[in-house]
Design goal:
Elements: H1 11-50, E1 59-75, E2 80-95, E3 101-103, E4 106-112, E5 115-122, E6 125-127, E7 131-140, H2 143-146, H3 151-158, E8 160-175, E9 179-194, E10 199-210
Antiparallel strand pairs: 1-2, 2-7, 3-6, 3-8, 4-5, 4-8, 8-9, 9-10
Amino acid sequence: MDIEKKEEKPLTTITTNQRKHKSRKCLCICISLTIGIILTIGIIILILALTVFKPKKPVTTVNSVAIKDLDASINLLPPRVSLNVSLDLNISIKNPNKVSVKYRNSSASILYKGDVVGDVPIPAGEIGSDTTKEMNLTLTVFADRLLTNMDVYGDVVKGELPISTYTRIVGKARILSLFNIRIVSVSTCDLDISITNRSVANQTCHYTNKA
């Protein structure tokens, strides 16, 4: 009786298939490890960005406002006021972030009843991490801008000139060299200038910060 022999696969074919299977398995493991590492790094970066490197609001504080120069005179006929005012404004900006903050060209202004009557530029700069930067600014009232407001005459006659200072700093913090966070810090101070005593009275400041 003839016994049918099973057809045997060549050894080379079996070896080739095993190698292909092993290569695919290794590739899948490598891809899984790579994805796992990327996800882990992403989670770590996210945790750091939300905790240690979470952007915090810088704080702009007006330390003092003092009169540097004051010259006022009144002409009764015709009614006319000559007024020159310069203020020394000392402010400090605290950066509570763990990274430095770069701020662009900004300005500080003097306002009289809502109208800008003087300003001074604040050049762009940088504040280091956990650092407070102090600035001394001189604000001068432009007399020609006051002449258009008829309320000035009455205030000078009373001997008290109500004005406001406004400072706005716009910058950005770069978190982990990946994200740029825009930061704005605003300070306003309402005060009265006593023309008789040549002093600043009733100073009230407000601070607004956002990130």
